[in-house]
Each structure stands twice: as structure tokens, then as C-alpha cells.
Amino acid sequence: MKLTDIEHVFFDLDHTLWDFDRNSALAFREIFKKQNIEIDVDDFLAVYKPINFKYWELYRNNSVTKESLRYGRLKESFDSLRFETCDATINLLADDYIEYLPNNNHLLEGSMEVLDHLRNTYKLHIITNGFEEVQQRKMVNSGIFDFFQTITTSEEAGVKKPHPQIFEKALQKSGALPQKSVMIGDNLEADIVGASQFGLHAIYLRSEDQDAQNQFIQIQKLKELLNYL
User: Which Pfam families match (predicted)?
Assistant: First the structure.
């Protein structure tokens, strides 16, 4: 069933349009080679992914700083693998990762097609908790920057999704009304519940292993958006 009376479509970026997992793996392969880290990247990513997820939850809740996230997720991953390295190397890797990550440009399946279709009817925007210094580079390098009229980052807003202030900031920048807006994202709490509580419609892009028991519209592929917009 189509959502009616929608004028503005807000997207999360990482894991929603931009293929974070694929691009992150490529960045780690590059920086491990650069810094002569003799560890299998697949083994590293197996422990890193849940640790990174945990640190982003802490960051979103203001329990760790940006710097602590960047260092801690690497330190804890190496410790879990009993791979010995020094703090100086970890800090180099943390800096290299942020530098190399936006150089990889893979989008999730259907992203370009969906954006190209939606831009003819709606005004498109980004709301992201990602680091400000890399989010625009990701969008430019992947060819999607020009689809969006506004980009609102958590660092600009001073709070992170699901805090209502970031949605308020995004709506102010875009001139949108919440009842005429919809948020699409992969994080149920940050993107979907946060947007809904501020009065926006919301569509949950979930993976197969994520909880399907909630009241929101759910899709598993971006192309399914076109069934609702």
C-alpha cells in the first residue's frame, strides 16, 4: 500500500544505501597491507563486527567518545585474537581506516535505481550518525551526493539518532513537515523508532537475522521501497 501525502524522504547512509560492510572490508585489507599487519582480514572481521556494533551503541548513547570508539574497537578486536600490537600502531590504523574507507564506492543493491526513481517525485535527504569528515566523501565517491537536498549529521546536530533534536534539525534544514516525511534506515531504534516518535513515517530496512516483530513497514531490499513510495 502506497504512503500518501509524502513530500520528503530521509535516508540513513551506512548499511542503508552505502554498502558499509563491503567497503569496510576493502579498507581493512588496504590498511593492514600498508601497516604490515599479518592477520587474516576475514578472521579479524569476524570478531571486529560485533565489537564495532557494540561501540557504536555506546557512542550513540554518549557512553564513549568518538576517539574512544575509533581506538577501542580496534584494540579490543586485536586483543580478542591475541594479536599483539602497540598503541601507536592502533592509532595509525584508526586514522588510516577513516582515510581509506570513503575510497571504496560500493552501494547496496538497488540504491542508484531507487534514488533515481524517487528524485522525480520527492525531495531526498540524509540523516546520519556517521563521522562528518567521511560521510560526504562517501556520497561523492559513490555518485549519490547530488540526489540529496540536505545532509544532517549527528556532529552538526550535537546529538545522535534517535534523539529528537537531530530529526528536528533535519526537518528545519529541509523545510519538511514530519507528517509529510518518511525515514528509511536499517537501525530499528535509531532510525525507525526515533523518527516515528518525532512524527515521521518510517520504513525499516532489515536483514534476515534482524527482529521482524514490530509495527513498522519492513523491507529487505531497497527496491521494495517502490511498493510504498
Answer: Hydrolase
Question: How many other CB atoms sit within 10 Å of the CB of residue 181?
Answer: 25
Q: What CATH architecture does domain 20-103 belong to? A: Orthogonal Bundle (1.10)
Q: How far is CA 16 from the centre of its chain?
A: 6
User: 59 with 72: CB under 8 angstroms?
Assistant: no
Nine cell digits for residue 145: 551526493
Q: What is the pLDDT of residues 110-161, one digit of tens each?
A: 999 999 999 999 999 999 998 888 999 999 999 999 999 999 999 999 999 9
DSSP letter at 14 equals: B
Please count the other Cβ atoms lying within 10 Å of the Cβ belonging to residue 2.
8
Q: What would be the CATH architecture of the domain defined by 8-19+107-227?
A: 3-Layer(aba) Sandwich (3.40)
SS3 183: strand
Distance CA 185, CA 92 (A): 31
Tell me which H or E stretch contains 166. Answer: helix 164-174
Question: Which helix (H) or strand (E) covers residue 152, if one does?
Answer: strand 150-153
Q: Which residue has the higher pLDDT, 95 or 213?
A: 95
In contact, 164 and 152? CB cutoff 8 Å: no
